Amino acid sequence: MKKIKLTCAHAIVKHLLSQKILIEGKKEPLFAGAFGIFGHGNVACLGQALEENKDKITTWRGHHEQNMALTGIAYARAKRRKQIFIATSSVGPGSTNMVTAAAVAMSNRLPILFLPGDTYANRMPDPVLQQVENFNNPGITQNDAFKPVTKYFDRITRPEQILQTLPQAIQTMLDPADCGPACISLCQDVQGETFEYPVDFFNERVHNIRRPRPDDFQIKEAAEKIKKSKNPIIISGGGIFYSDAINELGSFASKHNIPVTQTVMGYSTMKRDHTHFLGPIGGLGGKAANNLAKKTDLAIAIGTKLGDFTTGSWANFENPNFSLISINVTRFDASKHMAQSVIGDAKVSLVELSQALGSWKAPDDWHKKSREELKSWNDYVDKESGPTNQKLPSYAHAVGAIYRNSDPSDIAVTAAGGLVGEVVQVWRPREFNTHETEWGFSCMGYEISGSLGIKMANPNREVITFIGDGSYLLYNSDIYSSVITNNKLIIILCDNGGHAVINRLQLFKGGKEFNCLFESSKHSNLVGIDFAKHAASLGANSEEVSSISELEEAFKRAKKSEKTYVISIKTHSYQWLEGSAYWESPTLEMPTTKENEEALKLHKEGKSKQRQGV
Predict the structure, then answer these.
(1) Please, are residues 436 and 412 in contact by the beta-carbon 8 Å criterion?
(2) Which of 185, 207, 229 is the last residue of a domain?
């Protein structure tokens, strides 16, 4: 066996470069690039290996470890998990800064390869700079914090260990059922140590994401259950994207006459003009989908983990005869909530399930009911998001102004906060793949960093970021990143005076306004923030507007801009689109105010409708 002597760091980079993937029949690099912030824990060895291979893989400079990892995660989502980014940091706070990003990837079932530096395997210089010492276990370092939030973790204490661990990490990230982040923690001394590696370890390897087909018995059982239903609905999740099952979803719904609701993560898997489109479901959903959910006797969930915002904390399905079919490539997700499981790839499963159903269709009066509900809800949304002279426009007004003036192919991006629910209602997809959000972990600060990754994956499309002032103040440095890398974003900054959506929840639960809005904080020396000037200091074009008509004109200018454009507008702190589903959140069982009593009453009403045994 031929061998080649390399440092561990150089061998890691060489192996990652040899990995390829088939995308629509074309061979592409599996690792699209790397993000790195260098420190003493990764600059001398891994950093040099990346520099020496800069013509083969681009290493992008990050400004915050969490942000750069979020960008890589968003890129993987936009590429539908077919390409992966590397994120490397130094030991210490550089590595722990990425733990939150790892949780985002873990919650959303998205791949990213973390390569943080670690302490010395030989322990001779201990305690080293930025080492967190565990008095009872010297083998524990701060990087052990990655273990609960990654699908694969290993610590490299010998250079030859990468022969086993790198292939396992890669297969984990490519496994449709087990996809998630991987962390290979690199001891600083080992990065520079040498080993004679087999040359075969660096041979080109071409990957293709497998499509596990469902079991025949599960398909048969699911088909029989569907044939007995009178009022079925489909819940379309993000797995439809990852399986490339958009066309199969539309065909299945049309052939079998079943209305399609969508999760926030599965939004834009169906266009608004499809005959069976019903819009978003659950805590962020509209009345059209939720009214049918309350009456349905069967939900066919496809590619979704069925989080509480999708199910209305399991109080959204009020029909006593309700049952559930869950189609998912992941056994864990498919087997939840007393579901009839179909464990398999969504694309293949829909085709085989349709064949098993034959010519069966749901009743026409149920489809007619769905069209009536959708029209009613669309009329409401159009009214609430239409042009207005209101002094302080709502989130919906701002989103509506952008939606009316956008192109059908433009991509809307949201993350945590009130804009997620308002955008998903107003931004009814005119094209596929035009709505991206991070709702698995609801991570504030994802908005701009995630948009950068989505733009990198879609360089020829406009990416529009909707962000509140709270998230903007948390993380905004990737405005600068977008400018210096020529990845233009349009950022709509809705300034409603703090964390207004949590203030809304605070009031809804009977509390007093406290510390969510700036005005209800203890700080007496509040200073107005000029967000437009701040964005301009980061290199963006920017302006502040004071009305919806001005916002529309500014957006037209932003469209013509060649670089990132930030538009700031003050919005209403208390005006929201109407909610239509229960969501369980902490409620005081010993109310001290009349408002607490009303909140407890509503809480108990919702709890009484929850499906048992979930």
Answers:
(1) yes
(2) 207
Assigned domain for 601 exists: no
Whether the CB-CB separation of 381 and 531 falls below 8 Å is answered with no
Specify the pairing of strand 59-61 against strand 277-280: unpaired
SS3 content of the chain, % helix, strand, coil (to 5): 40, 20, 40
Residue 190 Ramachandran class (φ > 0 left, ψ -120 to 50 alpha, else beta): alpha
Specify whether 325 is located in the same domain as 228. yes
Q: Are 100 and 191 found together in one domain? A: yes
In-domain check, residue 291 = yes
CATH code of 352's domain: 3.40.50.1220
* 197-to-2, 14, 113, 202, 594 alpha-carbon distances in Å: 8, 11, 22, 9, 72
CA atoms within 13 A on the CB side of 34: 27
Residues 198 and 268 in one domain: no
For residue 320, cis peptide bond before it (omega within 30 degrees of 0): no
Q: Between the CA of residue 576 and those of 390, 399, 415, what are the distances in Å?
A: 14, 12, 17
Whether 528 contacts 497, CB under 8 Å: no
**603 domain residue, yes or no:** no
DSSP 140-163: --GGGGGGGG-SEEEEE-SGGGHH
Kindly indicate the confidence band of residue 33, based on its pLDDT and cuts at 50, 70 and 90: very high
Residue 424 resides in a domain = yes
Q: Are residues 360 and 330 in the same domain?
A: yes
CA distances from 481 to 515, 535, 564 (A): 31, 12, 10
Using DSSP's 3-state secondary structure scheme, residue 313 falls into coil
Read off the tokens for 595: 């408002």
Position 522 scores a pLDDT of: 84
Measure the CA–CA gap between 408 and 152, rounded to whole angstroms. 39
> Rounded to an integer, what distance in angstroms lies between the CA atom of residue 37 and that of residue 255?
52
The pLDDT tens digits of the residues spanning 49-105 come to 999 999 999 999 999 999 999 999 999 999 999 999 999 999 999 999 999 999 999
Same-domain status, 537 and 457? yes
Q: Exposed, middle or buried by CB within 10 Å (0-12, 13-18, 19+), for 259?
A: buried
Q: Are 449 and 402 in the same domain?
A: yes
CATH code for the domain of 396: 3.40.50.970
Predicted TM-score (pTM) of this structure = 0.97
| Shared-domain flag, residues 398 and 540 | yes
Classify residue 192 as exposed, middle or buried by CB count within 10 Å of its CB (0-12, 13-18, 19+): middle
Give residue 73's domain range: 3-207
Express as a percent the part of the chain with pLDDT over 90. Answer: 97
CA distance 376 to 267: 20
Indicate whether 92 and 224 sit together in one domain: no
The residues near 601 (Cβ < 8 Å, ≥ 6 apart) are: none
Residue 316, CB-side half-sphere exposure with 13 Å CA sphere: 34
